[in-house]
Amino acid sequence: MSESWANFAERLGSDLHLELAGSGSRRAALAEALRAAIQDGRLAPGTGLPPYRSLAVDLGIARNTVAATYSELVAEGWLTARQGSGTRVAERSAPLVRRRPSRPRITATAVPTHNLLQGQPDASAFPRKAWTTSTRRALTVAPDSAFGPGDPQGRLELRIALASYLARVRGVRAEPERIVICAGFSDALRLLFGGGVLRGPLAVEAYGLAFHRALLASTGVRTVPLGLDGHGSRTSELDDHDEVRSAL
């Protein structure tokens, strides 16, 4: 039976990176590298070290050199060695605490009772139970192809469901072949205007999201803000912007 990659990696000791520097003996260099790794926290207390043979193969040094180094560090209190549990970093060998530059204190801001800021929906209202049930049902019946690269327009099943929904709820007749699934409204704007499919100027609601207008500006599209009333955007204002109507 071929050896698994996990066993192979463990046997070679490839999960422990050490650099042996200095002009002294290999044993002294290994001991210093292990002490440094423990001191700076790369080897946390309780971490198991590779067996002698594994680390020796990985570093290209003699097995006896690794064994002697382990014994030395056990005697110094850096490591512990117990029958059946191997060699580990001693629990009392906590990393040195390094002084970090002080950071300005962040004062807690008051949380509003009713948050009406744009782009911050009430996450507590998310239908977790219904979402979990629907997701489990969809994953159970989904074909294998659904988990690989698919149609750039999106799954056909989803586009068919959307076409039916748009006709039933919004009164919009759309063929599934003419629907493109996007990763949100911003992604749709990038596809339409960033790819040069449409060009500006573009009329937008004056109180729309600022990052949507910024996204359009980054693609070179000029936006014309329209005011709002009780019925939505005041499209009558387009009479003052012939360039927008001609673009449409």
Question: Which helices and strands, and how do they pair?
Answer:
Layout: H1 5-12, H2 26-39, H3 52-59, H4 63-76, E1 79-82, E2 86-89, H5 128-141, H6 156-170, H7 185-194, E3 202-205, H8 210-218, E4 223-226, E5 228-229, E6 232-233, H9 242-247
Parallel strand pairs: 3-4
Antiparallel strand pairs: 1-2, 5-6
Helix pairs in contact: 2-4, 3-4, 7-8
Could you characterize the architecture of this molecule?
This protein is mostly helical and 248 residues long. It folds into three domains: 5-89, Winged helix-like DNA-binding domain superfamily/Winged helix DNA-binding domain (Arc Repressor Mutant, subunit A, Orthogonal Bundle), CATH 1.10.10.10; 153-182, no CATH class; 185-247, no CATH class. It is built from nine helices and six strands; from the N terminus they run ααααββαααβαβββα. The strands form three sheets. It has a two-stranded antiparallel sheet. The chain starts with a helix and ends with a helix. Mean pLDDT is 80; it is low at 1-14.
The mean pLDDT is 80
| Unreliable residue stretches | 1-14
E-strand count: 6
For the CA atoms, what is the radius of gyration? Answer: 32 Å
* Strand content bin: 5-15%
Number of helical regions: 9
Overall helicity: 25-40%
CATH superfamily assignment of the largest domain?
Winged helix-like DNA-binding domain superfamily/Winged helix DNA-binding domain
Structural class: mainly alpha
Roughly how many Å apart are the termini?
68 Å
